[in-house]
Amino acid sequence: MKPDVEFAVWASDRQQRIESVLESALDAGAAATDTLAAAMRYATLGGGKRVRAILAYAAGELAAANPMDVDPAAAAVELIHAYSLVHDDLPAMDDDAVRRGKPSCHVAFGEATALLAGDALQALAFAQLAHAPVAPAKAVAILAEASGIRGMAAGQAADLAATGGSLSLVELESMHRLKTGALIRAATALGARAGRADESTLAALDTYAAAIGLAFQVVDDILDVEGSTATLGKTAGKDAARGKPTYVTTLGVDAAREHAAVLRAQAHAALAPLGARARRLAEIADWVALRRN
Amino acid sequence: MKPDVEFAVWASDRQQRIESVLESALDAGAAATDTLAAAMRYATLGGGKRVRAILAYAAGELAAANPMDVDPAAAAVELIHAYSLVHDDLPAMDDDAVRRGKPSCHVAFGEATALLAGDALQALAFAQLAHAPVAPAKAVAILAEASGIRGMAAGQAADLAATGGSLSLVELESMHRLKTGALIRAATALGARAGRADESTLAALDTYAAAIGLAFQVVDDILDVEGSTATLGKTAGKDAARGKPTYVTTLGVDAAREHAAVLRAQAHAALAPLGARARRLAEIADWVALRRN
């Protein structure tokens, strides 16, 4: 198989795996007939690139973890991501009616149910880690830090505050380090910690994940300008419409593309000391930086 | 000192303790100048009866726990409670403008910030337990279960679904067991587990806490009819105004009062096998059942 085909097969296998892990986590929660449970399933299953889960599995493979030991971490980061999208799409926030190619959760289920579904997805994320076989308390600490006031939530608040204004590149990166980067770093760290990784490996992975997190956002901003709603599965051009500062408004398209290339190179450089066992993570860097949707 | 005065002194001491524990937890989170951090502090500090924290401390004392070992549990349940109030007061939910005697969080900070503050408070709750000295993973599992799709969130969804209709006593109790009861049971269990409690003690405490949780709600419903906004610190009469089924609409005031007395007796009966070391918990049962605000 060609290397990129071989990676696509591997990634698709992990996407199927996380889908089934998330199915089980959601099924354990409640009766299928319940509206709240239906909203949680709707918001979580059947969509998304699963970048965070895939990073967790790849970091777990690097650390010789049993994939079953990575499942709770992979599910937890995807559940946090799913809840953040549900809340982010609410009218009080980004007011977005399309997500993953279908009506947003609050459009399908109403605002109150969407709000509660997000809340319950967050609790379910921590429940996954509580039952993780390796160092569950440390994992909870990492996820709580990444998703709370010093992580994702702070980034979303900064995003709100910046809407309608402009940001320097430094300010923009600082916002995205929190909003997207923190959870991507947590996904990688949690995956690696499900196996055996020494401190220098964890540090290298963190540098890698920080670069990947920013690259992901730069590419998102470029696609928001160049993509269509159909290929993206979410509303195209919405950042510009809402007056949000992006890498494209801050740097222009060409410099943004160059910046993504630099971040991709940083990610590869961070992996260099880890040798061949970092191959999947290197492939993910290319996937994230070169993706078209 | 008269017993009830002595209890009031003890309870006030624990209220001050949890206030300071919550202050530290929130300070560790972020710079004081940050709007999101300010909204989290506003929603959490300086108010509330702290019933959940007090239950955790009392259960901890019964189990000979070091109060410092109970602090994370007490903080975690109060943070979950605070987040649930912030989200519950949002226009998409109960749309309530007054909470703990002051403007609700979204009135003071805007809806988007209130939504994020609630989200970040939930993450902060789990962060407390991650650093708990005794069995942190088990504690996380208990709190996640109590606050998620099989606990508080499910109760809030049932509450939404019931608004405008009527419920049988069985349906009403089933809703409140989830909405209020699950977190009150978790508070008691987490406090006891910070010390040494055998399975039969934990089972007795759980029966006690389940009765207390319902008694709390019955009294809430009576006070909602009979109290004023000034004494309650939240909008009086709001349940009736919103067409919510309550113990008063389901049973009438007199039978509701009788029901509260029965639940109080059930709580005392559950404590009987535990002897004198359950004194604080017995006093809490009286406090909850006989309170005027």
User: What would you say the CATH architecture of chain A is?
Assistant: Orthogonal Bundle
Mean pLDDT of chain A: 92
Summed up, the domain count of chain A is: 1
Largest sheet of chain A: 2 strands, antiparallel
SSE run of chain A: HHHHEEHHHHHHHHHHH
- Cα shape of chain A: globular
> Helix count of chain A, per DSSP?
15
Largest interface in this structure: A-B, 49 and 49 residues
Class by alpha and beta content of chain A: mainly alpha
Would you state the CATH class of chain A? Mainly Alpha
Which residues of chain A form runs of ≥5 with pLDDT under 50? none
Q: Which fold name fills CATH's third level, the topology of chain A?
A: Farnesyl Diphosphate Synthase
Structural Rg of chain A: 18 Å
Number of strands of chain A: 2
